[in-house]
Amino acid sequence: MAKKKSTKEKKTNDERILDQHHIEYEEVSFDWINNGADALAEAKEQGVPAESILKTIVMQANDDAKDYVVVCLSLIHEIDLKLVAHELGKKQVHLADNKNLINITGYVHGANTPIGINIRKGFPVYFDERIKNFDDISVSAGKVGRSVRLKRDDLVSLVSGKYIKVSEN
Fold first, then answer.
1. Is-contact 79 166, C-beta < 8 A?
2. Which residue has the higher pLDDT, 2 or 53?
3. Alpha-carbon distance 72 to 123, whole Å?
4. Sequence-ordered list of residues with C-beta below 8 angstroms from that of 67, at least 6 positions apart, any chain
5. What is the per-residue pLDDT across 72-97, written as a single tens digit (0 to 9) for each?
6. Predicted TM-score (pTM) of this structure
C-alpha cells in the first residue's frame, strides 16, 4: 500500500502522524453532505469488507473525569458496555458525552480517531478482537468524511493497542 492521496485536500494531522511514523496508508474521502454517503457506502464503492471499516468509540470508566478509553470496532457490530468493563477490569464504562467530545478528544463526533486521540491525549486504545481477520482496516483520518486505510498491525502498533472482546455476537 503506497502513500497516496485520492484528492488534493490538505493532509489531516492524523495523516501527518502516519507520515512521521513512516506508515503507509491510503486516504479516502467521501462526500457525506452532498451525496448522503456513509462508511458502508464507502466500503461498497471501494470493494472492501464493511467489517474492516472501524468506528471509534470514546468511553468514560468508573465515572472518573480522567479515565477515558477508546474502543475501535467494525461499523456493523454493536458494543456490550458490561462486557467491555469486564474485559478492562473496570467497574463500569459508559459512552463519553457527545456534546463534550471536542473537549475530551479534540475531535467532533464522527471524526474521532484512535491515532490522534492516543498520540495527543494518551488514552489507551482497544480493538475488537474480530478485526484480526483483516490485514487492512480503515479508521477516521480525524475529519468527518475522511478516512485512512492502512495495515491493521501498523495501527495497533502505533497506538500500543490491545485486543479485547467487545460483544458476544
1. yes
2. 53
3. 13
4. 60, 61, 90
5. 999 889 999 999 999 999 999 999 99
6. 0.88
